[in-house]
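Appendix C reproduces, verbatim, an entry submitted by the partner laboratory led by Prof. M.T., so that reviewers can inspect both the input and the predicted structure.
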Amino acid sequence: MKKVILSTAMMVLLLLPAVGQLKHVKGISNAGITCGTSGNGTLFGAGYSHYLQPKWIVNVNALYENGKVESTRFKNLIVNAGMDYTCFEAGEFLYLNAGLSLFAGSEKLTGEDARVGEKKNITFGPAGNINAELYVSPAFLFQLKAEQYYSPLSDLGKWFPVYSLSLKYCF
């Protein structure tokens, strides 16, 4: 999955930068779909972003993750809300952002051993991210994102990284 995300990002970066026209503008919004990996599972989701100022972005995302750690299958549902700040821009088509957010969700664990059974947890905590936005037209952009979550109540582990690629429509 990492190779697919990186290959797609490289193709977009090399072939499409001259096509992008839109820059960060106060008041614009975008919505999109996301796919990615956490190392132990795959995730899919949807999100919404709103530009408060050219450099400040508010984000809300919902993610569903499905995977396996050793002999335990897991399913997570996460809602994440936070802010990003644009640290660097190249022209009017490539933006590098860093952000902080809070998340809450549920975690369902199912052991392959019948004695283990099923366990459900509530998860919450902070997350940090870095991301790159590449505008490929006035209406569409790709976002490549790396996030680090800290979940103190998770039975899967306290820290978990997420890598994702999103396609977003601007309005």
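The domain at 2-170 is CATH 2.40.160.20 (Porin). Additional entries are available on request from the coordinating office.
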